[in-house]
Design brief:
Structural class: alpha+beta
Helix content: 55-70%
Low-confidence stretches: none
Number of helices: 5
Distance between the termini: 142 Å
Mean pLDDT: 85
Strand content: 15-25%
CATH class of the largest domain: Alpha Beta
Largest sheet: 5 strands, mixed
CATH topology of the largest domain: S16 Ribosomal Protein, Chain: A
Order of helices and strands: EEEEHEHHHH
Strand order of the largest sheet: 4-3-2-1-5
């Protein structure tokens, strides 16, 4: 069987961490390996990938076959693209300088995408926290109003309000008669 580039699982149950290794295709997943070329932590966002470029390219040139997951990881980090450019140099399609310029441009574009995704994720987390906080404030205000209403009902039940007496109203006709009965003063 050919040599494989694959993941070797490490970490606790429910908390995977992987080593990217070169192993014989017949060896078990977590068994003997030829060389460790990197690590992969899928729990972080974005995933934390540390890989030795030169070793990975060297093994790819020797004919090592990556598994599907490792192929995606190598593509994400640019190892496969760099290997492709090296093959172009060997065939005479481009010079090393042209290949390096293309690879650096690709790396800058990739880093810009990754930083943009990180910023988007940070903003979405902040927005989610802000909405949660606003909802909590509204809920607390509603609870406070309900408690105040309940206290007012209890206070009203314990102390009924005293009956209010209406002020005495003097009839308009009585005041008119009193004004007429008074005689003007004479000098």
């Amino acid at each position: 069987m050919p040599t494989k580039i694959r993941l070797q699982r490490r970490g606790k149950k429910g908390q995977p961490f992987y080593h990217i290794v070169i192993a014989d295709g017949r060896a078990p997943r977590d068994g003997k390996f030829i060389e460790k070329i990197g690590t992969y932590n899928p729990l972080t966002r974005p995933a934390d990938i540390d890989i030795d470029f030169s070793k990975a390219i060297d093994w790819l040139s020797k004919g090592a076959e990556p598994t599907d997951t490792v192929k995606a990881i190598l593509s994400y980090k640019g190892v496969l693209y760099k290997s492709h450019l090296i093959k172009g140099i060997q065939k005479g399609a481009m010079t090393e300088e042209q290949a390096e310029i293309k690879f650096q441009a690709w790396l800058q574009e990739k880093e810009a995408k990754i930083s943009g995704k990180k910023k988007e994720q940070e903003l979405s987390v902040k927005d989610a926290k802000k909405k949660l906080h606003e909802n909590e404030i509204k809920l607390n205000e509603a609870k406070a109003q309900a408690v105040a209403k309940k206290r007012a009902e209890i206070a009203a039940a314990q102390h009924p309000p005293a009956p209010v007496e209406a002020p005495a109203v003097v009839a308009l006709s009585e005041t008119a008669e009193a004004v007429q009965t008074e005689e003007p003063k004479q000098e």
